[in-house]
Structure formats: structure tokens, C-alpha cells
Design brief:
The chain has about 270 residues and is of the alpha/beta class. It folds into two domains: about 1-195, Rossmann fold; about 205-270, Helicase, Ruva Protein, domain 3. Helix content is about 40%, strand content about 20%. The chain has helices at about 1-10, 30-40, 60, 75-85, 115-125, 140-145, 155-165, 205-215, 225-230, 240-245, 260-270, and strands spanning about 25, 45-50, 65-70, 90, 105-110, 130-140, 165-175, 180, 185-195. It has a seven-stranded mixed β-sheet, sandwiched between helices. Strands 1-8 form a two-stranded antiparallel sheet. Strand 2, helix 3 (about 60) and strand 3 (about 65-70) form a beta-alpha-beta unit. The longest helix has 13 residues, at about 260-270. Bound molecules: S-adenosylmethionine. S-adenosylmethionine binds near residues 22, 76 and 111.
Length: about 270
């Protein structure tokens, strides 16, 4: 059985799977097929797999000429380099890697550790100019937040940061039973199709992030109150800036589109 095989291989490699590193390994061949079908890698792609683990997906990606693997667990890396000698195996915490050093046209695949999902997705967004697209498996609820449109509970800093740089295409849901150890929650595939430019012009990205974070600081309050409570822009006439941007200060942060945040940000630059 696949479960036994995964357990034996982990034993032989002396790796005790931990929750902290999100070490749940795909043991279901049809789930691997789904990822390949959904992600559709091409021979000209500069492929990067984040967290290849025991290599369930790696063996499919290795059919293509250019493949880099970034894995935090040293024993996996030693094994992966033996099995896939042509691959560029990097033993590192991906959060500390400068992805732009791997090229400017990366196609990323990753069944990501849940504990680091936000950090890794923010890393990808910050590296948008180096990435063509990313095909990721993440917790289903996390994918819903990535894809959320204004007006709902799932819409927030993550949705805005991601959709500023990427189109979000959601894919099939994968049951927690497809992993060893079995995951308690379902996963979902998602593709982020990156642009070299943000979706609307943002002269000061740092300020944009601060404005969005302040707007969502108290997401249940009115946006003006939330920005004030965040203390990020002490001394500025928040209500006036909102009005000048054509935004009713009585609205809530989750109702504003990305374009409205860009407009608001423009007022903070002037203010
Ligand atoms: N891709 C494999 C699969 O589908 O069976 C393993 C997926 S498992 C959910 C996540 C993998 O990411 C593990 O191999 C884990 O060791 C690795 N990992 C966890 N945190 C990491 C990090 N910060 N940087 C690189 N790899 C990481």
C-alpha cells in the first residue's frame, strides 16, 4: 500500500514528519495526475518546485529539462539529488531564498506547508517580476481567501496583495486522505498567473501595503475608524482623505476594490 511505502521511505531517510514543517506527503497517484493536468507544465518552462519532500510530484516535473527543487529537509535533498541528478537541488528554507536569482520566468509548483502558506505566498507576490505563474496546493480555506472578491468575509489583505499582481484561477479540491499522514482538512489547487506590472498603477507600494493593512486593522469597524485605530497615519485627516478619494468613510474595508485602495493611496501620498 502507498501509505506503507511512504512510511518505509520516511523511516529509511530518518525523517519524522512534523506539523511545523507541514510534512504531509501525497500518496495518491490520481491527485498527482490532477496537479499535472491542472498546472500543465511545458518543456520551455523554468520549473521550480517548493517543498518536494519524497518527490511525488517531482518525478513528473523531472520529465522537463529545467527543474530546481527547494527543500528545507536535508535528508530529502540528499535523496532527491540521487534520484534526480539533473535537477538543481537547493537545501534551504524557501522564505530566505532570493527567487529572482533563479531567473525571470519561473513556473513554480508546490504543495506548500500550511504553516508557512501566507509567508510563501507573500514571498511569491514580492517576487512577481521573476515569476510567470505558480501552481500551488493549499488549504481550501486559504485558496478561498486568495480568490475572494470585495464584499465578503474572505476578502482581505491576502486577496488584495495577491490580486494586485496575479490572476487567480482555482482548481480541484483534494481530500486530506490523499496524504500521509492524512491531513484533517481538504486542500485545493490554485494557479496564480503573474504580471510584470501591478493591476493598477501604484507609485509607492510600501505606502499601499500600509494603507491596506490599516484599513483592515479593525475589519468590523468603518474604514475611517479602523485606519485611525491603527495609529499608522497619526495626525492625518483620514475622513477628508477618504472623501477626496471618493470613498464614503462609513464603508468597511472589505467592500473596497483594489482600484479604490489605489485611489485612496494616492490621497495619502498627497496628504
Ligand atoms: N511535495 C511533497 C508532496 O506533495 O508529497 C511534499 C509536500 S509537504 C506538504 C511540504 C514539504 O515542504 C515538505 O517536504 C517539507 O519538508 C517542505 N518544507 C516545509 N517548510 C519549508 C520551507 N520553509 N522551505 C522549503 N521547504 C519546506
Amino acid at each position: 500500500m502507498e501509505k506503507d511505502r511512504a512510511r518505509d521511505r520516511l523511516g529509511a531517510l530518518r525523517v519524522h514528519p512534523t506539523k511545523k514543517l507541514g510534512q504531509n506527503f501525497l500518496i495518491d497517484a490520481s491527485a498527482v495526475d490532477e496537479i499535472v493536468r491542472f498546472g500543465a507544465p511545458l518543456s520551455e518552462d523554468n520549473l521550480l518546485e517548493i517543498g518536494p519532500g519524497l518527490g511525488a510530484l517531482t518525478k513528473e516535473l523531472y520529465r522537463f529539462p529545467r527543474l530546481t527543487l527547494i527543500e528545507i529537509e536535508e535528508n530529502f535533498c540528499l535523496e532527491l539529488q540521487k534520484r534526480y541528478p539533473r535537477a538543481n537541488v537547493i537545501n534551504a528554507d524557501v522564505r530566505l531564498v532570493d527567487l529572482s536569482e533563479l531567473g525571470s520566468d519561473l513556473v513554480v509548483f508546490g504543495n506548500l506547508p500550511y504553516a508557512f502558506s501566507s509567508e510563501i505566498v507573500f514571498l511569491l507576490v514580492d517576487s512577481a517580476v521573476a515569476i510567470k505563474r505558480a501552481v500551488l496546493m493549499l488549504q481550501k480555506e486559504f485558496v478561498e481567501r486568495l480568490a475572494a472578491k470585495p464584499g465578503g468575509r474572505d476578502y482581505g489583505v491576502l486577496s488584495i496583495s495577491c490580486q494586485l499582481w496575479a490572476q487567480v484561477r482555482t482548481g480541484p479540491v483534494i481530500s486530506g486522505e490523499c496524504f500521509h499522514p492524512a491531513a484533517k482538512v481538504d486542500s485545493q489547487l490554485v494557479e496564480l498567473i503573474f504580471s510584470k506590472e501591478p493591476r493598477c498603477p501604484i507609485p509607492d507600494l510600501f505606502l499601499f501595503k500600509r494603507v491596506v493593512a490599516a484599513a483592515f486593522f479593525k475589519r468590523r469597524r468603518k474604514i475611517g475608524n479602523s485606519i485611525r485605530a491603527s495609529q499608522a497615519f497619526r495626525g492625518l485627516p483620514i475622513e477628508e482623505l477618504l472623501e477626496r478619494a471618493g470613498i464614503d468613510p462609513g464603508r468597511r474595508a472589505e467592500t473596497l476594490s483594489i482600484e479604490e485602495y489605489a485611489r485612496l493611496c494616492g490621497q495619502f501620498e498627497l496628504g
